[in-house]
Every structure is written in C-alpha cells, then in structure tokens.
Amino acid sequence: MAMWPLPECAEEIVGNSPEDVAKRAEQDVHYQMRKKQIEARSNNNCGKARAAMSAITGKSLPKSPKKKVVYSLRLQHCLRAVQIYSQRYYKTHVQAAVKKAIRVSRQPLTHSQKLVIINKLTHETFQTESEEVKTKIFTALEQLREERAEAAQRGEWNAEDYLDAIEAAPAVLNRFLNDLALQMGWWFTVIAGGPDPADEGNIRTGRSVKSFLPSSMSHPYLAFTSV
After folding, report:
1. How high is the pLDDT of residue 162?
2. How many whole angstroms separate alpha carbon 12 and alpha carbon 207?
3. 109 to each of 103, 105, 113, 158, how far by Cα in Å?
4. pTM over 0.90
5. Residue 63: CB partners within 8 Å, gap ≥ 6?
6. Ordered per-residue pLDDT tens for the chain, 227 residues
7. Confidence (pLDDT) at 34
8. How far apart are CA 97 and CA 2, in angstroms?
9. Residue 98 has what DSSP assignment?
10. Closest-CA residue to 117 (of 32, 225, 28, 222)
11. Are 218 and 8 in contact (CB under 8 A)?
C-alpha cells in the first residue's frame, strides 16, 4: 500500500474522546480515498488484462456479472430517524461535542471531514438518548412517511424525496459508467452539485472519478470542491 499511504497513526482508534473522534474522521477520509484508488486501479488492470487475453485468443471474454444494488430498508429507517433527531436536538444535544472535537483536531478540517464528525456524533448521541426521546423521533418518522405517501399521490416532491435520489445517485452512475467504460474503453468524470437536504440546504458537491493514474485522484478538482 506504499502507493497510497495512510496517516501516520494507522492503528484502530477505539476511544470516544473528542481527540479520538477527530482522528477517526481523518482516518475515514483517507480510508475512503484509498479504497476508491484501489478500486480504480483494479478496474484499470482488469480491463487491460481482458483486452490482452481477447487479442491472444481472438474471443471476447464474458463480462463480470452485474451487481444488483440492494438498499437496506432498516438502515434507511435508522438514517431517517437520526436526521429527524438532528433537526430537533442538534443544537442542544450534539453541537457542543462537535465544536470540541473540531477544536482539538491537530490540523484544519475540510467541510467533508467536519460532516463526518457531525454525523458520527449525532448518531452516537441518538443511540444513547432516552426511550422517551426515541419514541418521539420514530413517531415523527412515521408521520413523515404518511405525509410523503400523500404527497406522492399528488405528484409532489419534498426534501426527503430529493435526499433519497441523492443517496441512490452514486450507485446508479457508477454502474452505468462502468458498463459504458467496458464497452468504449473510455473513462468518465461526473461532477454534480446542489443543495443538500441533509445539511440544511447547504451546497454540496459530488464527483465520480475514473483515472488511469490513481495518484491523480487524491485531490481532483480541488479549486472546484473548495468553493
């Protein structure tokens, strides 16, 4: 893994202090970056090997079976509950811990790294809440689902519908572009941006990058993502 080094502290951090939370956030960013780099390199090498074998044998090798995207309803149920909890209790129950974790970080954090800390601490705080608070949140979640069902019948879209589409977009885009890349031998970069319903409507950018040079993926479009 020398091609994509991790931060100096690569061992698992299991503590719950603000310092540990900040370190885990930094590690998570690096792990996700390295995972994407390894996947891209693997796809590149696999494509080259497939082309070389086809040239030798004169036959097209069968493509890998397409993976079916499966979404966990239970996981989405939990995520929605945490989002409602954040809307109602973030400032009073979570914000102080987030500010402390960001303040003790050893280096300036990017917006994405701050979101990792926010999401992690919000989820952990929700798990330790009283049954009374959890009951209120899940009751609100059921009410929200009923409202969404009624809105769907009227052909209306709300923030939750947009959030579902945003969360599903990476898998849809990657599947489509990977298949297209195998057919064309080209690679594609998709850049998107817009208001994020899960982040109070703040502008969020996203990108899907494939490259023959994995080292070039470390900070793609830095000027764009820093806006």
Report:
1. 76
2. 28
3. 10, 8, 6, 31
4. no
5. 182
6. 445 455 544 455 555 565 666 666 666 666 666 666 666 666 555 555 556 555 555 555 445 444 333 333 444 555 578 888 988 999 999 999 999 988 888 788 888 788 888 888 998 999 999 999 999 998 988 887 787 777 667 666 667 777 777 777 777 777 788 888 888 888 877 888 888 777 777 777 776 655 444 444 334 444 444 43
7. 65
8. 35
9. H
10. 28
11. no
Integer CA distances (angstroms), 53 to 39, 40, 181, 211, in order: 21, 20, 18, 22
Whose CA is closest to 212, among 192, 194, 193, 188? 188
Q: If you count them, how many residues does the chain have?
A: 227
Residue 204's SS3 state is strand
**Residue 32 · residue 9 · CB < 8 Å:** no
Tell me how far CA of residue 88 lies from CA of 25, 55, 92, 145, 220, in angstroms.
Answer: 24, 61, 9, 17, 35
C-alpha 147/C-alpha 195 separation (Å) is 22
Contact (Cβ atoms closer than 8 angstroms) between residue 86 and residue 122:
yes
* 131 burial level (CB within 10 Å; 0-12, 13-18, 19+): exposed
Supply φ then ψ for residue 82, to 5 degrees: -65, -35
Kindly tell me the burial class for residue 185, based on how many C-beta atoms sit within 10 Å of its own C-beta (0-12, 13-18, 19 or more): exposed
CA distance 121 to 108: 19
